[in-house]
Write a structure and sequence with these properties.
2 domains, 5-stranded mixed β-sheet, globular
């Protein structure tokens, strides 16, 4: 046998030991992992706050009874409550298998939710452009370009907000929404009914996990189905001769250009010029090709039929409970104005696509819904933030207008970080200038160690009524409305609690409330006079709140 047939080509350099090309992470994989690690540590170092008590209470009820859970915060039936979504049931099952409590499960859910959010955002940006730095810039825009005032509430994606809501179902739902939009724009354009039905199931799950996010996701389903992404740098849609986006060779022996900036005969292309048709880069995904109007209608009909059917078949939740929450907290302009830096990029995408770009189609409905208090602020800013990131990921040299846009975006990111977001990742012990820090809610472990699961508590503190149910206790009156609970019954219970805590209430009137709602404990602030029949069991040195036993 000839010796040449037995010889192996030598592998040189760092790959010699493995005999192949060394794996290198993409910019988004590298910086995304650092961001995941940093925000997970930031989330773990702070006490859980805000809506965490409500979500921990849901896990506690499912841990007690997976198939027939009671109301999340009160000793009432829980049939049809929107809180018992597939996400929550999975958490409850995990808690039953591991023996962990609701607060511990929420701690572990934060990094998982962030992973879904990061992978979904990366997949969505790759649908819009193959530029490797675009997802990195999109992540920076989504977390820094908010405003100079703090944005509260579920669905906000700023660094400061993520330290409190990373473990919430809304964060998981937004990550799934990014995945759903990417799949809708990619597979939905050429997929058959089966694949479209699979995407519809995903939208149904989003609706179950967070109905508010589900409405925004549905708007995105329409935009990414009927829309057509703007071509890079203002060129027309790529044709069948485009070079593959995965690094394949271009026709005629030419190297594949980066994002459409190339010139013939190997000469460098002028900044921001439209490339020749045969040298254009391919879209980031196979879904960038246009589709016929009948195909669009078919895809939308399949998704529109599958998503509500998925929600209707879920046994823990009734469809009535999935109605969007009206009266959400409206975020002020001061908390979001930096995201307006993306409007020029949205305008450019609209011009390049004859105003059919999905980000352009999506921005106005989401913004109007957020301003009206129907949708949360997180998704409303995403179209402008992603458009800005895609525009600034174009290869250099840049024209003057793009340099000005990049400078404005960099200045806005620095302003947003220093004015609001820095305290989320800079601990107080390492803070050289005194950044605003995330809220530090008190914990109620000192009280929970005396309260058995299922026992009823009357509380009057702002933090207590939003936290103590997360330890397995029941409130005499739920704080928040629930579509599965008659609002008249909830208000009647609130009236009973006010009557009990009234300074003019007699002992007989208080005893009647205790018997009616099976009250066992009082958790009162220092400003409240303790009833004479109550027996003090514990108190908090930090807040001054007192835990006292009443009833049998």
């Amino acid at each position: 046998m000839p010796q040449t047939l037995l010889a192996r080509r030598a592998a040189l350099g760092a790959t010699a030991l493995r005999g192949g090309r060394a794996w290198r992470p993409t910019p988004y994989q590298f910086f995304g992992f650092l961001f995941w690690l940093l925000m997970s540590l930031a989330y773990w170092r702070l006490p859980l706050c805000c809506e965490a008590g409500q979500h921990a209470a849901v896990v506690e009820r499912l841990r007690a009874s997976l198939l027939e859970p009671r109301h999340p915060t009160a000793d009432l039936p829980g049939d049809g409550s929107a809180a018992y979504s597939p996400y929550a049931v999975a958490q409850g099952l995990f808690a039953r298998l591991t023996g962990l409590g609701g607060w511990e499960v929420l701690r572990l859910a934060g990094p998982l939710n962030l992973l879904v959010l990061l992978t979904g955002a990366g997949r969505l940006v790759r649908l819009l452009t193959p530029r490797p730095w675009a997802p990195v810039l999109a992540l920076a825009a989504m977390t820094l370009l908010w405003g100079t005032e703090r944005a509260h509430g579920s669905g906000a994606l700023g660094l400061m907000a993520l330290t409190g809501n990373l473990g919430n179902p809304s964060t998981f739902a937004i990550g799934l929404t990014f995945w759903a939009w990417a799949l809708t724009g990619a597979r939905g354009r050429k997929a058959g009914p089966a694949r479209c039905a699979g995407v519809g199931v995903l939208y149904g799950v989003i609706l179950l996990v967070d109905p508010v996010t589900g409405v925004g996701a549905a708007l995105g389903a329409v935009a990414f189905t009927v829309g057509r992404a703007a071509p890079a740098d203002g060129g027309s849609a790529p044709d069948s001769r485009a070079a593959p986006a995965d690094g394949g060779s271009a026709p005629h022996g030419r190297a594949a250009p980066a994002d459409g900036d190339s010139a013939p005969h190997g000469q460098p292309a002028p900044a921001d010029k439209d490339p020749a048709p045969h040298d254009r880069a391919a879209p980031a995904d196979e879904g960038s090709a246009p589709r016929s109007r009948p195909a669009q209608v078919r895809a939308l009909l399949v998704i529109a039929a599958t998503a509500p059917a998925t929600a209707a078949l879920w046994p823990w939740t009734g469809l009535r409970a999935l109605a969007p929450h009206h009266g959400l907290t409206v975020v002020g302009v001061g908390a979001v104005w930096l995201a307006l830096l993306g409007l020029p990029a949205l305008w450019l995408r609209g011009r390049r696509s004859a105003w059919r770009d999905p980000l352009v189609l999506l921005f106005a409905p989401l913004a109007i819904g957020s301003a009206a208090g129907v949708l949360g602020p997180g998704l409303a800013l995403v179209p402008a933030q992603l458009a800005l990131a895609v525009e600034l990921s174009a290869p250099r040299p840049w024209r003057a207008w793009r340099r000005a846009l990049g400078a404005a975006a960099a200045a806005g990111a620095c302003l947003g970080f220093l004015s609001v977001q820095a305290g989320a990742v800079v601990p107080r012990s390492l803070d050289p200038v005194g950044f605003a820090q995330p809220p530090r809610w008190p914990t109620y472990e000192w009280a929970a160690q005396h309260i058995r699961p299922g026992e009823v508590v009357i509380a009057d503190g702002y933090y207590a009524v939003r936290s103590v149910a997360g330890y397995g206790a029941n409130l005499a009156a739920p704080v928040r409305p629930d579509a599965a609970l008659d609002e008249r019954q909830r208000r009647a219970r609130l009236d009973d609690v006010r009557a009990y805590l009234s300074p003019g209430a007699t002992r007989a009137e208080r005893a009647a409330v205790v018997r009616r709602h099976h009250v066992r404990w009082l958790l009162l602030t220092r400003s409240r006079t303790l009833p004479e029949e109550a027996v003090v069991v514990a108190w908090s040195p930090r807040t001054g709140e007192v835990l006292a036993r009443v009833g049998g």
